[in-house]
Design brief:
40% of the residues lie in helices and 16% in strands. It is built from nine helices and ten strands. α1 crosses α2 and α6 crosses α7.
Length: 268
Amino acid sequence: MAAYMEQKNLANEIIDPARAQQIADGVHRVLDRIATATDASGREQGSVKLLAATKTRDVGEIMAALDAGVRMIGENRPQEVAAKAEGLARHCGERGWTLGAGEPGGATIPFHLIGQLQTNKINKVLPVVDVIESVDSVELAEKIARRAVARGITVGVLLEVNESGEASKSGCDPSHAIDIARQIGAMGGLHLQGLMTIGAHVNDERVIRAGFAHLRRLREQILETGAPGTADCRELSMGMTQDMELAIAEGSTIVRVGTAIFGERAFK
């Protein structure tokens, strides 16, 4: 368990009205940024989805973001998924929404895992999340696939690619991405939906954009293979608070934003 989970009750469902308004204002600012960047890149409005990155945020804070217009959430840690799932599902149900991989009915709020997944935590997330964005190896994909097949479900996955080459970042080597994607596409229990990357942690916009552009080209190459199970590999999850405009210019379809919605985290 992460240390901050002992200091903050992530299952808390109560939120101060001023805090809820602060979050709503953040959501609206981010949606405006996405709309402006989408226009500037000559893309169709609605082609970029906002995923609220909810690491260290409690149920009340997340519901405030959903009430303000967020329609996709993502957690970094399986332990947080487990801590928040019941409360989030109940509140979503009261609004006529289905959370992630819950029972179908009404509008669905996609629930993604965007952080690293250890194999011993797979069973914590499969009953709840509908997409795992952090699949970075054939071995991990195979283990998820086996658990999914055993449950009689299909799990969406994004292949995480380390475009920056930074040792501190997870993700497969870009040179292996096409082969790994083809293998994932052939696995039962998995639905390959696209690719994910984290932008380079540098001040040079050209370097950041080059990584995003390369991920886009990888997606096109994967689609061009025509390999079984790769036809839906269309999502590009790239861009965060600091670089979402660059990612949108290079074709991002999902931006993962936390700080610009919720403010700086009190815990890491």
